[in-house]
Amino acid sequence: MSNNPQAKIITVFNEKGGSGKTTTTCQLAGTLGIRGYDVLVADLDPQESSAKWLAQRGGVNFKATSWTGHRYGENLNAQLETQSTKHEIIVLDCAPSVEQPATWQALLVSDLVIIPTKLNPPDIAALHAAKLLVKKAIEMSGRKIPARVVPVAARMHMTDDRKAVGDLLADTAFPVLTQRGDRKNREVVSLGDRKAYTRSMLIGATAHSLRGSEDSVREIEEMVDAILNILGLPDTAAATEGQS
Ligand SMILES: Nc1ncnc2c1ncn2[C@@H]1O[C@H](COP(=O)(O)OP(=O)(O)OP(=O)(O)O)[C@@H](O)[C@H]1O
Ligand SMILES: [Mg+2]
């Protein structure tokens, strides 16, 4: 259990089905766990895809706690408050539907919203609706909730995907996640189209557990660095203890 009174809440949201929410959630949460953070993965999808991912191989390969938050529906936030005293970071894997009351609840209490998207035309078209809902949640919550788009299954060697990322970069209200560092030379953070992301699900782990998955690991680590930077958290939880 952490000493932090309030966990940081990262909501992984996109109402488009199959956009990479569960993949992003699990690679992100597991990597934060490897970095020493006490992480809760809150599965807000009745399909329980992330809960099943964490439970593979008896759960021994995944360094985070699993919680099926979708069961609480519109009472999610009361339950989240309790969970938030027990963990340092909560990653919420949303269902592909805004009809789920838990999705709206999650957006309102987020410290960061991550919107994974594939780069094909139907997914890019659907992104607009997802951004509008996040905008509405930010307005209703009265809080400045940062939101970042993360391209997933991206084929950056393909002209179409590079063009799609170029268009995403033009949206300053909902920026693409970029590496921290020199503002001018920031690189987009994306998850490539890689088998390691799917294969790691089969063993209930992140890509770190697979041999020959260095490129995948580098991408995830960059994503985690960028996200921790936005949240104002150190690269590793050990650094937190060192500072206190
Ligand atoms: N970076 C990636 N590289 C290769 N395949 C990917 C990647 N990200 C996601 N996929 C694949 O795309 C499919 C959908 O991914 P995922 O389940 O993460 O999406 P989702 O948004 O959670 O879906 P749902 O809306 O059903 O909850 C899966 O088959 C997954 O393995
Ligand atoms: Mg999912």
Number of helices: 9
CATH architecture: 3-Layer(aba) Sandwich
**Helical proportion?**
40-55%
User: What is the CATH class?
Assistant: Alpha Beta
| Parts with pLDDT < 50 across at least 5 consecutive residues | none
Please identify which CATH superfamily we are dealing with: P-loop containing nucleotide triphosphate hydrolases
Tally of DSSP β-strands: 7
Estimated radius of gyration: 17 Å
Ligand list: adenosine-5'-triphosphate, magnesium ion
Q: How many separate domains make up the residues?
A: 1
| Arithmetic mean pLDDT | 93
For this structure, the quaternary state is: single chain
Give an account of the 3D structure.
Helix 1 (21-34) crosses helix 8. This protein has a single domain (8-237), classed as P-loop containing nucleotide triphosphate hydrolases (Rossmann fold, 3-Layer(aba) Sandwich). The protein is globular, with a radius of gyration of 17 Å. The protein has a 7-stranded parallel β-sheet with strand order 3-2-4-1-5-6-7, with helices on both faces. The chain is of the alpha/beta class. Helix content is 42%, strand content 14%. The protein has 9 helices and 7 strands. Helix 2 (49-55) links the parallel strand 2 and strand 3. The site of magnesium ion has 5 residues, from helix 1.
